[in-house]
Amino acid sequence: MMRLYFLFITSLFYSTLVAQVKLPRLISDNMVLQRDAKLTIWGWASPGEKVRVRFNNKTYSTATGADSTWKVTLPAQKAGGPYDMEVRGSNEILIKNILIGDVWVCSGQSNMELPMERVKEKYGEAIAQSANPAIRQFNVATTFEFQKARTDLESGSWVAADPKTVLQFTAVGYFFAKELYEKYKVPIGLIKASVGGSPAEAWLTAEALQAFPKHLEVLAKYKREGYMDSIRNGERRFRDNWYKTIWQQDKGLHDAKPWYDTGVDVSGWSKMPVPGFWDEHGLKGVNGVVWFRKDIEVPASMTGKPVKLLLGRIVDQDSVFVNGRFAGTIGYQYPPRRYELPAGMLQPGKNTIVVRVINSGGRGGFITDKPYELIADDHTIDLKGEWRFALGTTAPPLPAQTFFQYQPTGLYNAMIAPMLNYRIKGVIWYQGESNAGRPVEYRTLFPAVINTWRRQWKQGNFPFLFVQLANYMQTKDKPGESSWAMTREAQMKTLSLPNTGMAVITDIGEWNDIHPLNKEDVGKRLALWAQKQAYGDKKVVYSGPLYQSMTVQGNKILLQFTSTGSGLMAKGGGELKYFAIAGADKKFVWAKAAIEGNRVVVWSDEVPQPVAVRYAWADNPEGANLYNKEGLPASSFRTDEWEE
Length: 644
Description:
Layout lengths: L1 H18 L12 E3 L4 E6 L5 E6 L2 E6 L5 E6 L5 E9 L3 E17 L1 H4 L10 H5 L3 E8 L18 E4 L9 H14 L3 E7 L18 H11 L3 H23 L1 H4 L15 E5 L1 E2 L10 E11 L8 E5 L2 E2 L1 E6 L2 E6 L7 E4 L7 E11 L5 E2 L5 E5 L2 E4 L2 E10 L15 H7 L9 E5 L8 H19 L6 E4 L15 H11 L6 E4 L16 H14 L12 E8 L2 E7 L5 E3 L8 E4 L6 E2 L1 E5 L2 E5 L8 E4 L10 E3 L8 E2 L6
Helix pairs in contact: 4-11, 9-10
Pfam family, one: SASA
Keywords: Hydrolase
Protein name: 9-O-acetylesterase
């Protein structure tokens, strides 16, 4: 009898749980719903269960289908709020503080994912003034799925911007939203669904991959039972053993005194300038652990208070000690090293900074042209210059880790598919770095992302606005080939799709950082395209000059452009730079160029019979200065179709 009673209570409890009306995570407190468009509210409950949704003094009813899903359609709503929404079945859910405005999906890779926290030193004032309940973000957690599309997001909630919460907002997305809100005074909802390092194929459906057989083959492998576990377990054992070995063999940890101790004799250590790489100072081809040490004099005025220790960027991993005390660690190369030292860690007079660097492959050391300094209030100590260093241990290069989230279809299934019922205004996209090694494929791969998302969302050709790759890597003295330039070209060709837009940023990148700090201008330039494509502003100048056509006249080539605004100009005055010209031999040389009205004339005495021109055709076309008078840069381009 007791067993029967227990089974009865369990089944009753289970049936109650099944009957509970459940909502997707996007339909939650503080959400922003798209204005001026029919809205879908959906969820799950027991088959046949009646569900009522009450919103803005009206009630909408439906019944759950056999698949336990239900859906109601709300008529188009005007911008405004806040509102509440009641959802009733066998239970009741109250959703509070809803705004009606414009919803933008912010997707791509790390430059879209990068949060305001990473640029807080640059945008301190903007962060301090960020309180705005009308700008909100939903952060989609990074996850992946290869078997089939998920029906709900793994986690996430809507959060309004303020000086604390905005630190986790996408920086590009925040400045984009801020610009639009200031002009239109309409609530802006950002759905941040971006993953650092992700290639375009990770955001495609399995169906779309039919056009890309190699990626489809990869997906088939990841669908196999046990395939990921075998990779994960094998790599984990190798990596665990690698780190265990360098820990055991690191002399800096196992000498009589650890090398972070202030009493260690370092008179026999070598010297090198920081920032810099150790392969230029006697450790060529070395991977493993290298210790760095610098003694500095600190005035009493900098002690007894919190201090910032900035160590630029370090390849790959670092642990920092100040006066023998642990100060912090970062496990991969891209984040800026910003360590907060508590009051009392520094002392008047001599202080010792020690950095233990682990490098698992490539060149190890300190990235140049970054800040290396101690900062307390208005007092700064420059840490660049001579440091002592010693080898802790060597190690073989560590093989690259498999990132499952980068594999075909995984991100689409887990992070995009669950929100296809949610009405949006459009998408802003910052991605391409991970596909720059395959620029020819990107000509079809990237448009496939746009077409697939539009087809799956079933909202027509909604605005899809993207960022062209920034300038990056070393500059070159002579014209040459560039996979980054070819990727930018693939992005520019994508403008042939309807209702797209491209923000050109080859003037605000950083040669030594794939994550340039200037995210405000990126957001603003995307917002200009939004004003044109999403808000119908026919007067806004939304783009810099875009190459249109060429004409050969004797020893010169005349170039025509669109998006010239109120006229072309050479930014900063003087001559136009970064034009190259070639004859039939396909050998490019630097050229002279001059503006004539809304045309550019290009020539070189070395090429009497020119056939092709290239502009800003490089990984880092630093100094390229063709703009329109509204201050927007021209996109890089080539007139030839010579494959590289």
